[in-house]
Amino acid sequence: MILRGFRYKLAPTAEQEVLFRQFSGVCRLIYNLALEQRRDFWRQFQRQTGRPLNYVAQARELTLLRAEFDWIEAVSQTCQQQALRDLDKAFANFFKGGARYPTPRRKNVNDSFRFQGREVEVKKLNGKWSAVRLPKIGWVKFRDTRSIRGTVKNVTVALDALGWHISFACEIEHVAPINICPAVGIDRGVARTLTLSTGERLSVPRSLEAIERRQRAAQRIAARRKRGSVRRAKALRRVAKLSARRARIRRDWQHKATLNLARRFGTVVLEDLRIRNMTASATGTLEELGRMVRQKAGLNRSILNQGWFGFETILAYKLEERGGCLCKVDPAYTSQTCSECGAVDRQSRKSQAVFLCQHCGFRANADHNAAINILRRNTASRDETSFRAMRMEEGHWLSGEVRTGSRFAPAENPPASARGRC
Ligand SMILES: [Zn+2]
Predict the structure, then answer these.
(1) Are the CB atoms for 271 and 233 separated by under 8 Å?
(2) How far, in Å, is the centroid of ligand 1 from the Cα of 360?
(3) Which of 45, 70, 113, 153 has the highest Cβ tally under 10 A?
(4) Which has the closest alpha carbon to 175: 8, 323, 61?
């Protein structure tokens, strides 16, 4: 069983858009009220009722609130309950120690609401358009760019800078096939996004940088305009639009690159980069002022631009679907080690691009050399070759093609005609 999301651009009518805003506004209010109650009144609540202030207690209070105010009752109750569930989860994560204390939701940032899967219905209108029936809203058209698979568990309607979108979270029956495609090591860099141990290179599209430049220019314009003015709001909308477009281009590239990798390789080895550490602010503390603040800020930007975290997440699930796996190894000295003789020498790394071994004279592209080292680190620890030989003896041998289970028909990459232009 795997979980997948399917996201589409909605085309609501003017009246539906008003309803969308009303729904997200009321859900946000419920969330914020519930957060306030948990923050300030949990002790009092416990003393008065003898029960903890949890989801069940707050859902009961919600029912009372709905009876009192018509405009709260006008919005679907499940959406409001889902908001309370989100809060419950946010608190659970906080108490587990993985997240910060929940913060209030904000207008123009958190504009979304969620239904349960069994409440909605989808019908096809024609080749390009479909419609979804949302409780208390009605049929809303959306641009159908690919078919939904599996059973819909829940449905989220959300607003971003590019308009209203809907995403269906689905559970898909799936048994991962046995995958014996070769292993590959990947070095991730700033100059070249990915270098494979086979010597191939994959880079994010150039247009990303151009858009970033335009976004920075738009940001400067927005900063000059008067706070609270209409013109400033307009400038900020432009910034948000560019940022959303950049995110979309990056995500598109991530999906294409990871699909390419997952189809060809069974095991993908990456360096275990602590991205959060790498991009930590360079300003330092008061006692120890950071060095090279400007340079570090530039590096941070390019690291985040490459979107490595998203890349890893997508690659992991695409591999899992095909029975492959994603491994991570310690990255220490991978760029200073010679992949021919194994000598570790700082001097061997001549420049950003060139690796020249000081001991055996091996010369290669520095990223390629590192990628081979990364692959080797994993195979050394897991003894991949004997593992594969064992699999072959068991009769699992397949040709280079990745096999997918019969119950699972990948709908990715539909023909260009069916893909549309969303
Ligand atoms: Zn060497």
Answers:
(1) no
(2) 4
(3) 113
(4) 323
- The CATH code that applies to domain 183-201+246-404 is 3.30.420
Closest CA to 175 of 411, 396, 2: 2
Q: Quick one: which of 146, 179, 162 has its CA closest to 266?
A: 179
352-411 pLDDT, tens digit per residue, is 888 999 988 899 999 999 999 999 888 765 554 444 444 444 444 333 333 333 333 333
For residue 10, what are its two tokens?
């909605």
Number of residues written out for the chain: 422
Q: Judge whether 367 counts as a catalytic residue.
A: yes
Residue of 271, 312, 321, 384 with catalytic role? 271
User: Which letter does DSSP use for residue 349 in this model?
Assistant: B
The catalytic residue among 86, 111, 187, 312 is: 187
- Strand, helix or coil at 60? helix
What are the residue boundaries of the structural domains of the chain, listed by start? 1-174, 183-201+246-404
Distances (CA, A) of 286 to 71, 283, 307, 362: 51, 9, 30, 45
Look at residues 112, 212, 100 and name the one whose alpha carbon lies nearest to residue 160: 112
Annotated catalytic residue 187: yes
